[in-house]
């Protein structure tokens, strides 16, 4: 359940064709538009979703600078991976992928997969485990 790095790079609005290239871009700070894009893909018109990653005041400053911090960039990159994994799991249904990421799951301690993914890399692993076990059932 690993997405193609070229797909990830495209959604992050960066030039990279490998995971190393993505890692380097994350370390340098992704463009703010990457946050806008994944927020729209997952939460559509709920622009407050982006504040789960970057506070409103900080986001204003990031927009002026044009780049996210490495920590914020890592969260955005994880969300992009989670979105692509969910999209693949739900056979390309954007609606199903979004709903899965946004709605709390009993198997994830009543937390939404998106919140877990934002919180840590372990949250992304938990999402993958839930999807893989659902596929086996």
TrEMBL record:
Pfam families: Xre-like-HTH. This is Antitoxin Xre-like helix-turn-helix domain-containing protein. GO terms for molecular function: DNA binding. It comes from the Bacteria. InterPro entries: Antitox_Xre, Xre-like_HTH. Residues 23-81 form the Antitoxin Xre-like helix-turn-helix domain.
């Amino acid at each position: 359940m690993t997405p193609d790095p070229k797909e990830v790079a495209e959604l992050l609005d960066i030039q990279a064709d490998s995971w190393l290239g993505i890692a380097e871009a994350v370390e340098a700070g992704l463009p703010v538009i990457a946050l806008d894009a994944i927020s729209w893909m997952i939460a559509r018109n709920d622009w407050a979703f982006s504040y789960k990653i970057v506070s409103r005041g900080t986001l204003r400053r990031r927009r002026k600078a044009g780049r996210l911090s490495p920590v914020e960039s890592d969260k955005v990159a994880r969300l992009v991976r989670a979105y692509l994994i969910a999209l693949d799991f739900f056979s390309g249904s954007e609606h199903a992928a979004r709903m899965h990421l946004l709605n709390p799951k009993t198997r994830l301690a009543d937390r939404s997969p998106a919140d877990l993914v934002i919180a840590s890399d372990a949250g992304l692993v938990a999402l993958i485990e839930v999807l893989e076990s659902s596929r086996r059932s």
